[in-house]
Design brief:
659 residues; alpha+beta; 30 strands; 25% helix; elongated
């Protein structure tokens, strides 16, 4: 931080210290000067200031109607962001279509007041600073991006019917006709601000700021914004806090999921996101809601739900064991799981990245949400066409009226790759000037350019870039793609993903040959028991109905006749996880043996595998016809899939045995 910024922050801290010292010295006297009067520099109360100005009548009316006049007319500690009468009427017209104040309901008024108010007194310059995390640390200057507002979750609960519920998700079917009492999130909304010190500390340029504000202003980094509203008068000091005036009425945006759902330009993308949404019963909200709205009327008490999204690795900042997904118990004591997940919950108001690395105040998320036109082009003539041809081929008029239904047919664990690729965990790392450094799922540059951005939407938990381009994940074009898209390579897909070979095989800077046995021929003869009277064979199986992803793979354990290979006695099953790691070790050994860096059709007879084993290939011209493994068994190639970073070879008649 340079001297200019140090002086500016230090100036306000010094003023605060001086006031404290003066008050302390005065308190030592027998007669305190301010016992019967208030310091002149404090000015009027917040309410009195608004009244004296004569141009905040509608905002004052909101305060009065919500019985908040006494609070804002007396001492306290509040920060209020206000708009004058002209901006107020313009705001309710643009947001809700209202022509007059009288059309506002109490709910609308609570939205206006509570989301324009902070429960502490903040000079604008100090809003971008965060308290010291402990007694031995200093104040964190310029790192605060968001503040939790005075709004309460209970005020956001609404009633939703069919058209406002996820259309392609069976978890919501029972609520379509009767409706559901729902909180779009069960955490409090936050206020996003762009202030000089914060922009400076995070190296966010004026060009970045203007792009994010859709070039509505010729803004500089010295200007201050709350969401997309400019602060035009700041730091009006009142005896109970501060007032800051905006050039527009602050009606807060929703979270990213809701902004994507309601902006009218990203309907297809929203439909895809909402396949991962679930209605989770919330006991706390249920109790609070019924205490307020149905007190003493148990017969009409209502169940309140919150809208959540399946995520992997982290359940809203809490690590999920074994890399599993969000699960929940419904009112019938049934546990719900999903076959796919997102990187994070786009509906989480108090979003923070990871499991503790950041706080909700110092960063937020980013989503690159393709427009409906971009989505249509991607799935009909672009890289997504293969997904429609694979999964949506039975949908009538898939490339026209039925495109959304065709996209719905893509399994969750396949479509998640696209959605995850478009979700970035850090706003500070994804502002327009940092587009070249944004990586895709293969850790290669994603190729985002400023001219790809049609619109920016600042949500309360992140920034949505509405794009005219779809950034396809490497998973759709790499050697792993045929495995992911196949119904008969589930074991291979599980092993590649669970043992993280996908991170290796997604590299577009290398050429791979990937060998994948069909599920039906995954039979492994244990070489350690080959000379036993009853040698052992493992037959790998995939169970799609297993409760967790980690338990979907198991192996049947049999004895067999070494001469005829006929199975004899079943001696139980073993899973790939749990107390024994033998099955997991076998799968890892296989895939170390099935991955070759390079082209096995290059004319050479022998090739070294990733695990330093050796395979032999038989060629006809430049085509691989069969592969011979460590035990000398020759297996014909069932099918070859040319991909962007190599070739995938499917085996249908057996699996090559590692030595």
């Amino acid at each position: 931080m340079n001297k200019k910024h140090t002086f500016k922050v230090g100036k306000y801290i010094s003023m605060a210290c001086l006031l404290f010292v003066c008050a302390t010295v005065q308190s030592c006297r027998d007669e305190y000067y301010y016992d019967d009067r208030e310091p002149d520099f404090l000015g009027a109360s917040i309410y009195d200031y608004l009244e004296s100005e004569g141009r905040f009548n509608y905002f004052m009316k909101v305060i009065e109607d919500l019985n908040y006049k006494e609070v804002l007319a007396k001492t306290g500690s509040k920060t209020l962001f206000v708009a004058d009468d002209e901006a107020f009427i313009k705001g309710i017209k643009e947001e809700w279509g209202f022509d007059s104040y009288d059309q506002l309901t109490p709910a609308h008024k609570r939205i206006i007041l509570n989301n324009s108010m902070l429960d502490n007194a903040y000079l604008l310059e100090l809003m971008s600073s965060m308290p010291a995390p402990d007694a031995n640390s200093e104040t964190i200057i310029g790192r605060c991006l968001r503040q939790v507002t005075s709004a309460q979750v209970i005020d956001t609960i609404g009633y939703f019917y069919d058209k406002d519920l996820p259309q392609n998700n069976p978890d919501w079917d029972k609520f379509r006709e009767k409706g559901i009492r729902l909180a779009l999130d069960a955490t409090r909304t936050t206020m996003v601000h762009f202030l000089e010190e914060q922009l400076y500390q995070n190296s966010i340029s004026a060009e970045d700021l203007n792009i994010m504000l859709n070039n509505r202003y010729n803004a500089t980094t010295k200007d201050a914004f709350i969401f997309d509203k400019m602060v035009i008068d700041q730091n009006v000091t009142c005896k109970n806090g501060y007032v800051h005036e905006l050039d527009g009425l602050l009606i807060p945006p929703g979270n990213m999921a809701e902004e994507i759902r309601t902006n009218g330009k990203t309907n297809t993308f929203s439909r895809m996101l909402d396949r991962f949404a679930v209605p989770v019963p919330n006991a706390t909200l249920t109790a609070d809601y019924n205490r307020i709205y149905h007190y003493g009327d148990d017969a009409n008490a209502e169940q309140v739900y919150e809208k959540r999204y399946y995520t992997s690795g982290s359940n809203r900042g809490t690590a999920i064991k074994d890399g599993g997904y969000l699960s929940y118990i419904d009112n019938n004591e049934i546990e719900h799981h999903a076959k796919g997940s997102l990187f994070y919950d786009p509906g989480w108001n108090e979003y923070k990245a990871g499991t503790g690395q950041t706080t909700k105040e110092n960063d937020m998320a980013v989503i690159f949400a393709p427009s409906d036109d971009a989505m249509a082009e991607y799935f009909t003539t672009g890289e997504g066409q293969a997904l429609i041809e694979r999964y949506g081929r039975n949908v009538v008029d898939a490339f026209g009226k039925g495109l959304n239904e065709a996209i719905d047919s893509i399994p969750l664990d396949v479509i998640q790759a696209l959605l995850r690729n478009l979700m970035q965990i850090s706003f500070n790392s994804a502002v327009p000037s940092r587009f070249p450094s944004i990586m895709d799922d293969a850790r290669d540059p994603m190729g985002v350019e400023k001219n790809h951005i049609d619109e920016c939407i600042i949500a309360n938990n992140g920034l949505v870039y509405v794009t005219n381009k779809v950034y396809s994940p490497a998973k759709y074009v790499a050697v792993t793609a045929p495995v992911m898209l196949s119904d008969t390579l589930k074991i291979a897909n599980w092993a590649i993903n669970n043992y993280e070979y996908d991170k290796y095989l997604l590299s577009m800077g290398s050429t791979f040959s990937l060998i994948v046995p069909n599920d039906g021929c995954m039979t492994y003869y244990d070489p350690k028991t080959i000379n036993d009277p009853e040698p052992i064979v493992y037959r790998f199986r995939y169970n799609p109905l297993a409760k967790t992803e980690a338990s979907k793979i198991y192996a049947e354990k049999w004895t067999y006749d070494p001469d005829t290979k006929e199975l004899k006695d079943s001696i139980g099953n073993e899973t790939a996880t749990g107390a024994t790691t033998q099955i997991g070790n076998l799968l890892k050994q296989m895939y170390e043996y099935y991955i070759i860096v390079g082209d096995i059709a290059n004319g050479n007879k022998y090739h070294m595998t990733k695990g330093y084993g050796t395979i032999q290939v038989k060629l006809e011209g430049d085509e691989v016809k069969s592969i011979i493994g460590g035990n000398g068994t020759e297996i014909p190639v069932g099918h070859k899939y040319p991909q962007k970073n190599g070739d995938t070879y499917r085996l249908d008649a057996g699996m090559i045995q590692p030595p």
